[in-house]
Structure formats: C-alpha cells, structure tokens
Design a protein that fits this description.
The complex is a heterodimer of chains A (about 375) and B (about 375). Chain A has about 375 residues and is of the alpha/beta class. Chain A contains twelve helices and twelve strands. In chain A, helix 4 links the parallel strand 3 and strand 4. Chain A starts with a helix and ends in a 21-residue tail after the last helix. With about 375 residues, chain B is mostly helical. Chain B contains 16 helices and no strands. In chain B, helix 4 runs antiparallel to helix 11 and helix 12 crosses helix 15. The radius of gyration of chain B is 23 Å and the shape is globular. Classes of the chains: A alpha/beta (about 375), B mainly alpha (about 375).
C-alpha cells in the first residue's frame, strides 16, 4: 500500500488555517499613519520655451545608473538642467541615461565629442570619470552633483577651473528632520537608521538629526543605528533594511519616529515603518513621492535641493562667471530643506513650524551649529551610533 | 537563580543565557522571517542535490522569481480587482504574482535541468550562468519598466493569531514566531515537514535517494534516472520561486536590482550544514539568521554590566562571519561529518550499461561499487 502521510498532514493544516483565519486579530501597531488621500507631489513648473538664440551654450546631462524620471537624483538634477537652460536662454539640454556604471566615461565623452559646453554628471559615483574628463577638456565646464573634491584623495580635482562640485550640508538637513521628529514623537524616543557609520554623509545626517531633536526636547532619546559596513547590504538590500528595522522596533517599542539614511536599503526601513504604523522621515529627495508604497507614513524628508543647485551652476556659466571647486549648498543659500508634509500638514503646528524656521535661519546665519559639539559629525572614523 | 550569575567566570555564561531567554521571544519573529528565503532556497538545493544535481544557481532563480513576482503582481493590479479577500490579505494580483514567480523559477530550473542532465554540461557552470544572467536580465528589465512603474500591489499579511494562543506560557512566542506568518512563510513550515516525511517514508523519497547515491543501481531496478532528476530539479524550482516571491510580495513590497544579496549561497551553506535533510537545513537557516539577530539584539539592547560591555566590544563582523565559520568547521569534519549524496554533480549516462557489456568479459561484475 502506498503511503500518503503528507496528504493527511496538509489536510489537518488547511483545516487549522481556516479555523484560525476566522478569528483573525490585527497585529499591534501605533496607528500614526494616514491615508494619503488626494495629496499630490508639487508639480515642477514646466519650463517655458527658452528665448531662442539668447545663449548658444549646449548643455548635456549624464545620469547615474537608473532612469531619468526616478523621482530621485537623476530627475531633480535633470529638472535643474532644464531650468538652468531656461534662465540663460539656451536650447533644451540633452541627456544620456547611463545603464551600466562602466559607461560613465564613455557617456561623458560622447557629449565632449559633440562639442557640448556644459556637462552635468549626476551622483557621487561619477566623480572619478568627471574629474578625468574635466582634466582632459579644460574648455568644457563640468558640474558634478554630490561629488566632493578633496585635495588628497582620488577626487583630487580641487584646482581645476572648469569643474564644480555641488555638495550639500547633510547635517543641516538632518537637524531640521530632528526637530520634526522630536516634535511629533509622543513617547520621547526617536531613531535614525543609517546604512553605514563609515560614510560621511550618512553620519552627518544622523548626528544633525540628533542635535535637532535635542534642540526641541533635551530629554528626547535618540537612537542612531547603522545597518552594516558591507556597502551592498548598507545601501542596496531592502530586505535587510526591513528585517533590521523590524527587530529594532521589537526591542524598542517606544520609538515612534524613524529617519532613514540608507539609500535603497532604507526603502525597507520605510516598509517596516509602514507596518508598525509609526512616522517615517525620508532622505535626500521627497520620498513621499519616490516611495509611494510607504507614503502613508512618511511625514517629510530631509531634502537636498538638487534642482536649484544645478540650475544655479548653469546660470553662473551663462552669466560669464563659472564656479569651480566644491560649491556648498546649505541653509545659507536655501540648498537644503524639508519636503512637504502632505497629509500630516495639520500636525505641524505654528509652534513647530516656527522652530523649524528659526533653526533654518539660525543655521543660515551661522548661530546654530548642527554638528555641535564640534566633531560630532563625521570626523574620519566610523561612527558607533548611540 | 541569582547566585548563578555571581559565580566567577561561569557566571557570565549564565547571565548570557538569562539575557537570551529574555530577548529571544521578542526577536524570534524577525529571526524566523529572515530564515524563510534561506530555508526555501536550501529546499531547492535539497531537491537538486538529493537527486544528484548540483545547483549553485539558486541565487539567480530567487532573484528572477523576486522580480517576476513583484512585476506581475503590480501589473495585474492594474488589470484585475485587487480587493483583499480571506486570510493573509490575499488578493488576486498577489496570487497571480506568486504563480508567475513559481512558473519563472521552474522555467529557469528547466534550463538548468536540460543543461546538466541532457546536455551534461558542467553543473557548476550552468548554475553560474543562471546567476549572472539573472542579475543582468532583472536589472535591465527593472530599468526599462521603472519608467512607467505601476504602484506596488502590496503584500501578503500575517495570519494574525488570537492572543489566547500567542500569550500561552512557554510556547506562545514560538507559535507567534512560526505560525503567525504569511502564506509563504507558513508554506515553508509545511514544506519542511512534508519533505522530511516524504524523503524517508515514501517511495518517491527512496527513489530520489537512490538516484542521488547510485543512479546505475537505480536504473537496474527500473527507475528512470533522467526523468526522476528532471522532475526533482523542476520541483526544486518551485521552492526557489517561493523564496523569491517571499522577498517582494510577502516580506517586502518592492524590487531592487541584486536584492537577493547572497541569500542563495547562504542557502547552499545551510543545505550542507543541515546534512541534506529538510529538518537539518531548516535548523541551519534558523541558526544563521539567529546569529545575525543576536548580534543586532546586542546593539539594540545589550545586557547590563561587564557582560554587555564584552558583547558590545565584539565587532559586528564577527557575528556576521559566524555562520560561515560554523559551516567550514562542519565541512572540515570537526563536528561530525557532512557527506553529500554520492552521485552529486555527475551527469548520468544511460549508455554506460551498453558500453560495460562490451568490456565486462575482462573484469568481474562490480558489485561492491558505491
């Protein structure tokens, strides 16, 4: 006789499943999230047709791997290029969407070969290729988004008159996010989850966040946790991001605001936030728009104003005074800020908004230091977290 | 009990155990959830290797399935009603995604089966090709479609057990961690138990083991080795498909290029560590993810006193390397030997018997060969 032990077992389990399904209970959550309703991301005003002929500069943009409308670095830099062209009255810019990181140099070169005057390269990863191209083509102006030029490492580009790097004050953006977090937290415990404690922008975001939170409520407990020193896990593994944050929430059930600083791994952090129905804060760009899966829980994002920075750079070239070296964007020139609050707008009371505005003005004037005590932000060693 | 903690030196061990007992019930759901894709991946490897086929392409199969699950689910959410019904937050798009993921992984498995059984290509190379191909094709398609990416179709939800069960003393947390999962997570628990029984208690199991250990002998008693291997490799694809779908429509709800991030290879390690048995590989998967979970638990809430300082001082990389260290130790035979199926990796050539008949007069029958 043939035995079918599996069949009996599965029948029992199926029956059990049905019984249990009848008495379903919903998992515990803090219920802080809200349906997004009919809120919409603000439309970037479509650039009107440029006054033809007022500038004959040709503008090209090379994206990082991805798409042009990624609601992330590529898209906002591209909108900056469009706006810059509009400002100086140049023809509409061209773009090359990079499909593999091995093509960076070739894509830049193809703009050089076609006699483009301004070439925008998007993202830290294109730094090396941009530096090489800028060195070889002194007549072409290069704008590198999020590419830091240091005198003594592989990006030894400082000194080139035709290469400007747009850098952003992550600590200041994090500071603003921290104010929102501490103001919204009901429990007095908030967290920042970063990809890796060895990456300067990540540490600066997190430490600025800590200072911002403490500026509102000195007693607030700020957890800063880094996921991994393995950069693949730290920035490109949403599964680990979610599982890390799930466990963090299980062990720190009081935390009700989480700021993610972990790139694509951070999308997993936001998924966990979404499951726990607590507040999430996005990073770099308006993540309410870029990660719609978690939008119900994203109160705001610590933003880098990429569009502004790129269009400024193009306008400067058009105006005859191109910039060079590291061009810093911070509160001083409205280069950082917070994304809209969307469905949570009514939670941001006048009191909270005035604290945000005061901090912004203070950082612009230099009276508020998001990195105090000095050295709290990235100082060349791995940040252990708190 | 307190006096145990104060014992010199050994007291720390008791403190550690005490801390673990306190923290384990809290973190168990995360540990089990992280073990699901690894367990399914290992189950895929189990189906392959038990019938004599090496499969190092599990990673690629998982990645393909993860992409297909996410993509077909979001795509069909545009076409069919996506209202949830029944338990698990089940909806038509999610079920379509799940079916498509299983289908895609079975298709990739079919290619692997064809290459390694019919063509008799090197099985390591076949698996490597699958891994490289999967990274390329999913990355490329993801780029193409992310221009018009439809919103995610959501994900399967946990069963939601009544608190009367999960609050039970002693076993409540185990019920919560293992049974309060989505359909794929529960599927693994069922799959492990069923496969364990089938392997050692059914005709199919006996034949599979025969084909994996000594295909020539199996053939002589009338088992169709080629068909058996094809069938098992393709069933293995079902498990790889479930592993992938788990990542994008149950545990998470989005796809990211290369998001499997080595889980297919960890699954292979779990298979070896678990000595090619379903229960063993499940235990190994849990051990691997538990070491990660305990490392995080130390960082999120270390025990108090010197023990906490000591645990916190251990670099996190050490915990990360622990599963592999254990696997190496097991492979080296320090903790009992782990020996795989004898015929694994060898393509089966049916003509062998014909050839042997011509050479047999020179040598006596090879009865003792194993």
């Amino acid at each position: 006789m043939r035995k079918h032990p599996g069949v009996a077992f599965m029948a029992i389990l199926a029956a059990l499943t049905l019984v249990l399904a009848a008495c379903q209970s919903s998992g515990p959550d803090l219920g802080l999230c809200r349906p997004i309703g009919d809120a919409k991301a603000p439309e970037t005003p479509a650039p009107t047709a440029a006054a033809p002929g007022s500038s004959d500069l040709k503008i090209g943009l090379v994206t990082d791997v991805g798409t042009l409308d990624d609601r992330n670095f590529n898209q906002y830099s591209w909108e900056g290029a469009l706006r810059g062209a509009e400002i100086i009255g140049a023809a509409e810019p061209s773009n090359i969407v990079t499909t593999a990181s091995s093509d960076y140099a070739a894509n830049i070169q193809s703009f050089v070969d076609q006699d483009y005057n301004i070439i925008v390269t998007v993202g830290f990863a294109l730094g090396e290729a941009t530096l090489a191209a800028a060195t070889a083509n002194p007549d072409v102006h290069f704008i590198g988004v999020d590419q830091f030029q240091a005198g003594d490492d592989f990006l030894a580009g400082a000194g080139l008159a035709n290469y400007e790097s747009l850098i952003f004050s992550e600590a200041q953006a994090g500071y603003l996010a921290g104010i929102v977090a501490a103001s919204l937290s009901k429990s007095g415990e908030v967290a920042a989850i970063g990809g890796s404690g060895t990456i300067p922008p990540v540490v600066n975001y997190a430490r600025g966040y800590e200072n911002g939170a403490k500026s509102v409520n000195p007693d607030v407990k700020v957890h800063i946790k880094y996921i991994s020193d393995d950069l693949g896990v730290a920035f490109n593994d949403p599964t680990t991001g979610k599982s890390f944050t799930d466990q963090f929430r299980q062990q720190n059930a009081k935390v009700d605001v989480i700021f993610q600083v972990a790139g694509k791994t951070g999308n997993g952090v936001l998924q966990s936030v979404e499951e726990g129905k607590i507040y999430g804060i996005g990073v770099d760009v308006d993540q309410w728009a870029s990660t719609p899966e978690s939008a119900e829980c994203i109160v705001t994002s610590a933003e880098k104003k990429l569009t502004l920075a790129v269009s400024d750079g193009i306008a400067a070239v058009g105006g005859g005074s191109p910039r060079a070296g590291n061009v810093s964007y911070s509160a001083t020139n409205d280069g950082i800020g917070l994304a809209p609050f969307y469905q949570f707008a009514d939670l941001i009371t006048d009191d909270i908004q005035s604290k945000i505005d005061a901090a912004f003005d203070g950082m612009a004037a230099g009276s508020v230091d998001p990195c105090k005590p000095s050295g709290l932000c990235y100082a060349g060693t791995a940040d252990p977290g708190t | 009990m307190e006096f145990l903690y104060d014992l010199p030196a050994i007291g720390y061990v008791f403190q550690f155990i005490g801390w673990l007992i306190g923290v384990l019930p809290i973190i168990a759901p995360t540990i089990v959830a992280a073990a699901v894709p690894i367990g399914f991946g290992a189950l895929c490897g189990f189906m392959n290797e038990r019938s004599g086929v090496i499969n190092i392409g599990i990673e690629g199969m998982m990645l393909t399935a993860a992409f297909v699950a996410w993509w077909t689910a979001s795509l069909s959410a545009q076409l069919v009603p996506s209202t949830a019904f029944g338990p698990f937050g089940m909806s038509l798009p999610l079920l379509i995604g799940l079916a498509a993921a299983i289908g895609a992984a079975m298709l990739v498995s079919l290619v692997h089966a064809w290459l390694s059984i019919t063509v008799r290509a090197d099985q390591i190379i076949s698996g490597t090709i699958i891994n490289i191909f999967a990274v390329g094709i999913t990355g490329y398609l993801n780029l193409l479609i992310s221009q018009t990416a439809p919103p995610s179709a959501g994900q399967f939800r946990g069963l939601g057990l009544p608190s009367a069960l999960t609050d039970l003393p002693l076993v409540g947390w185990l019920i919560d961690a293992f049974l309060d999962q989505g359909p794929i997570g529960l599927g693994l628990i069922i799959g492990i138990v069923v496969m364990q029984i089938l392997l050692f208690r059914s005709r199919w199991g006996l034949r599979t083991r025969a084909v994996g250990e000594h295909p020539e002998a199996a053939e002589t008693v009338g088992i169709d080795v080629i068909a058996m291997r094809y069938r098992n490799v393709i069933i293995g694809g079902v498990f790889a498909g479930l592993a992938g779908a788990y990542l994008t429509i149950e545990f998470g709800n989005s796809f990211q290029g290369e998001m499997t991030n080595g889980r297919g290879f960890i699954a292979l390690a779990a298979l070896i560590f678990g000595r090619w048995t379903p229960l063993g590989l499940m235990g190994a998967s849990l051990l691997f993810t538990a070491s990660e979970g305990i490392q995080r638990a130390v960082r999120f809430g270390p025990p108090e006193g010197p023990l906490g300082d000591f645990l916190s001082a251990i670099p996190t990389q050490f915990y990360g390397a622990l599963p592999y260290l254990i696997t190496i130790i097991v492979l080296a035979g320090v903790v009992g030997r782990s020996i795989g199926p004898a015929a694994v990796g060898q393509p089966y050539v049916r003509e062998k018997r014909e050839r042997r008949r011509t050479t047999v007069p020179a040598q006596p029958a090879e009865t003792g060969a194993a």
